[in-house]
Design a protein that fits this description.
Blueprint: E1 8-11, H1 21-37, E2 40-43, H2 57-68, H3 91-103, E3 107-110, H4 114-126, H5 142-149, E4 155-158, E5 165-170, E6 174-179, E7 187-189, H6 197-207, E8 212-215, H7 223-233, E9 239-242, E10 246-247, H8 260-265, H9 272-277, H10 282-290, H11 305-311, E11 322-323, H12 326-339, H13 342-355, H14 362-372, H15 382-386, H16 408-423, H17 430-444, H18 448-460, H19 468-475, H20 477-498
Parallel strand pairs: 1-2, 8-9, 10-11
Antiparallel strand pairs: 3-4, 4-7, 5-6
Length: 499
């Protein structure tokens, strides 16, 4: 980190769509730098593009950030010394700065109609030129332009130097030199007097004393313009950090929001709120996105948010594109699930059980958490793993009750024998039931696995389940016997069909 200024960073999203992984990572890196240095983290809502405004997007954004564990020091819901934090409420501030640029020769009023601009654009495309403004209004006398601006529709454009170069420095990529003749006279203020990002963000970053601008690589294309604007005002530039691009899981091509529907089919998503609904922990998502563009060393990968605050550094950011690896997310989620204390994991699982229709008391959930902790990849899987514990009965495919390499008759005899043994016990637990059932398997000429497989399906409805005897103990003798009795009836029906 090269700046000696007090660290003040901002996350400045636009409420024009859902909150995705890229936004989450940008917010996270800004947050980590602020918390590590004792600086300030500002949330600013860049809502000047009303045509693309999406109702509910801001609420989803704030919910997503809170869920990830990221809090801010200044913002729309907190206020602060640089309020307001909605760009739509700062219109006059931007117009004042636009007028200064015009008066000092760095910008001009442009009166070209949309029809003329479109014709010009088509001609440039046909002649294989990059579309750009041809500068027609640059030569209008400033006084004449000011008079016309009082009654004619117009935009404000930045007056880009026509020759020379500009050198800009990104902390990850080093010095970048751009020829001014390759830069357009970008629009700063639209005809409806609303400032565009290029002006609004630079003005706000200066007035809010932002020391580091950490943002996505999509802004590299206008990096030089932003530096020109800041230098026109004579302001101190922030340290610039443009983060790496996210690639598709295949590693081929940039990941886009438009392709997110394909991921949903596979049980994944690039949207933060979707990952929450799918049963991922915020700790795991934070761990995962932190490592998509940053590393601590070559062997440590498991980090809590507190760990990341302690160890994060801008110097270890990597500009190389990062492929979105959902298998890695599954891996981290499993690790963080197993890292949670039992009662905390039970608390996290509870909403997913309720959503699946299981009205379960907290202590019961806490009792079964140790049975499934090692098996869970996502929290929403809990209902599949232990739903049988809270159902009056389980749905069984009768054919699954037939043991491995066993006949229907042999399976029926095994189920009946188990029922008889368990009926005689005062209560069912690992210590008293397992030895007796192993002895039964020997008596019937079966392996323990063959017998236990039949019991597992009969009691849980699954061929793979949490530990069998611990599950039986939690279920209780009455339910275990009822389910075994049902299994005996199903096997009896199969036996009659076979005879």
């Amino acid at each position: 980190m090269f700046s000696t200024r007090p660290v003040r960073v901002r996350f400045a999203p636009s409420p024009t769509g859902r909150t995705h992984l890229g936004s989450g990572r940008t917010a996270l890196y800004n947050y980590l730098l602020a918390r590590q240095t004792g600086g300030r983290f500002i949330l600013r809502i860049e809502d000047t593009d009303q045509k693309r405004f999406v109702p509910g997007a801001e609420r989803e954004l704030i919910d997503s950030l809170h869920w990830l564990g990221l809090d801010w020091d200044e913002g729309p819901d907190i206020d602060g010394p640089h309020a307001p934090y909605y760009q739509s409420e700062r219109k006059e501030i931007y117009l004042k700065h636009a007028r200064w640029l015009i008066e000092n020769g760095f910008a001009y009023n442009c009166f070209c109609s949309s029809k003329r601009l479109e014709m010009m654009r088509q001609e440039q495309i046909q002649s294989k030129q990059n579309p750009h403004y041809d500068g027609l209004c640059r030569s209008i006398d400033p006084q004449t332009a000011a008079e016309r601006a009082r009654h004619e529709p117009h935009v404000v454009r930045f007056k880009m130097p026509e020759d020379g170069t500009i050198s800009v420095k990104d902390m990850l990529r080093g010095e970048i030199v751009v020829e001014n003749r390759n830069l357009d006279d970008y629009i700063l203020v639209k005809s409806d007097t609303l400032a565009l990002y290029h002006l609004a963000a630079m003005v706000d970053d200066h007035l809010m004393d932002i020391s580091h601008v950490i943002r996505g690589s999509e802004w590299l294309s206008t990096f030089a313009l932003h530096a020109h604007i800041i230098r026109a005002f004579g302001w101190q530039e922030p340290e610039w950090v443009h983060l790496s691009v996210f690639l598709k899981p295949s590693g081929k091509g940039k990941m886009s929001k438009r392709e997110s529907s394909d991921l949903i089919k596979d049980g994944y998503s690039i949207f933060i709120n979707d990952l929450r609904a799918l049963g991922y922990l915020p700790e795991a998502v934070v761990n995962w996105i932190a490592l998509m563009g940053w590393s601590y060393d070559d062997h440590n990968e498991f980090f809590s948010l507190r760990d990341l605050v302690e160890r994060f550094s801008l110097e270890r950011l990597n500009p190389a594109p990062a492929a979105i690896n959902f298998s890695k997310l599954d891996h981290f989620n499993g690790l963080h699930i197993r890292n949670l204390p039992t009662h905390e994991l039970a608390r996290r699982i509870s909403p997913y059980l309720r959503s699946a229709g299981y009205d379960v008391d907290f202590q019961s959930i806490a009792n079964f958490v140790p049975l499934i902790r090692e098996r869970l990849v996502t929290l929403d899987e809990a209902a599949d793993w232990i739903g049988f514990l809270f159902s009056n009965e389980v749905q069984i495919e009768p054919g699954q009750l037939i043991g491995n390499k066993m006949s229907t008759e042999e399976s029926l005899a095994a189920a009946r024998g188990a029922y008889t043994i368990l009926s005689d016990l005062p209560a069912i637990n690992l210590e008293n039931a397992e030895p007796l059932l192993r002895a039964l398997a020997d008596e019937l000429g079966l392996t323990a696995g063959q017998l236990f497989g039949i019991l597992r399906v009969a009691i849980t409805g699954r061929t793979v389940s949490p530990p069998l005897f611990e599950s039986m103990e939690i279920l209780g003798k009455e339910k275990v016997l009822a389910r075994l009795n049902n299994a005996v009836a199903l096997l009896s029906s199969l036996s009659e069909e076979d005879s």
